[in-house]
From TrEMBL:
Name of the protein described by the UniProt record: Metal-dependent hydrolase
Organism field: Hyphobacterium vulgare
Coiled coil segments of this chain: none
Top-rank lineage group of the source organism: Bacteria
Chain segments annotated as transmembrane: 20-42, 62-84, 91-107, 127-151, 163-180, 192-211
Keywords: Membrane, Transmembrane, Transmembrane helix
Length: 218
């Protein structure tokens, strides 16, 4: 899943005062690790055009970033880090960040073919919805839109830009999704890793620019 991951991120501010940029990083944290690990040769991927209807990547080896056990570990680590550095709502904020990190694994479970190990070296799971283009699109944009509506009801604009900022962010997510499918992704893992990390970081920056700066909790 790609933009669907941002649905849970957008719902986060409803439950604790955590900035959207941090939630955007949290929901993609497992993919940040994946990008770093495949670039470093710790995890492995091969490109097979048509591997699923939605993705050419055969993600046959990602025990440290995408196993269930490690997803729980990373969720706890990031939740604790946030609780440590947050100035207020440490417990609620830490829990929301941890839930955001773990939401990535649950969303991946729906769309991935069975390539998500339960633990490093353990059996792999995945419901394979990436094999259907319409189901994937409904899921990606349904979850994204639901999260966006929760965000809009949980926060309010400070000035005019605060009203259009989230609309622009939503549009940019749609455009980014379209570009990522219309273009050929980098196939060299040494490039694909940093590329993924760069795109996610840009989206987190846009969340700060278009939402955090110009909106506040209701
Ligand atoms: Zn992932």
């Amino acid at each position: 899943m790609f933009v669907g991951h941002y649905g849970p991120a957008l719902a986060g501010p409803r439950f604790a005062p955590v900035p959207l940029w941090a939630l955007f990083v949290a929901v993609q944290f497992l993919d940040y690790l994946w990008g770093a690990f495949i670039a470093l040769g710790i995890e492995h991927v091969r490109v097979e055009p048509g591997f699923t209807a939605m993705s050419p990547f055969d993600l046959y080896h990602m025990p440290w970033s995408h196993s269930l056990v490690m997803a729980l570990v990373w969720s706890a680590v990031l939740g604790l880090v946030w609780a440590g550095i947050a100035k207020r709502s440490k417990l609620a904020g830490g829990l929301v960040i941890a839930a955001a990190v773990f939401s990535h694994w649950l969303a991946d479970l729906l769309v991935h073919v069975p390539d998500l190990p339960l633990w490093p070296g353990g059996p792999s799971v995945g419901f394979g919805l990436w094999n259907s283009v319409p189901v994937t699109l409904i899921l990606e944009f349904g979850v994204l839109a639901a999260g966006w509506l929760v965000y809009m009801s949980a926060t309010r604009a400070r000035g005019t830009f605060g009203r259009i900022g989230p609309v622009i962010l939503f549009a940019l997510l749609v455009v980014t999704y379209w570009i990522s499918h219309a273009s050929t992704p980098p196939t060299n893992p040494a490039v694909a890793g940093p590329y993924v990390i760069g795109v996610y970081t840009l989206l987190a920056f846009l969340a700060w620019l278009l939402c955090d700066r110009v909106r506040e909790a209701r």
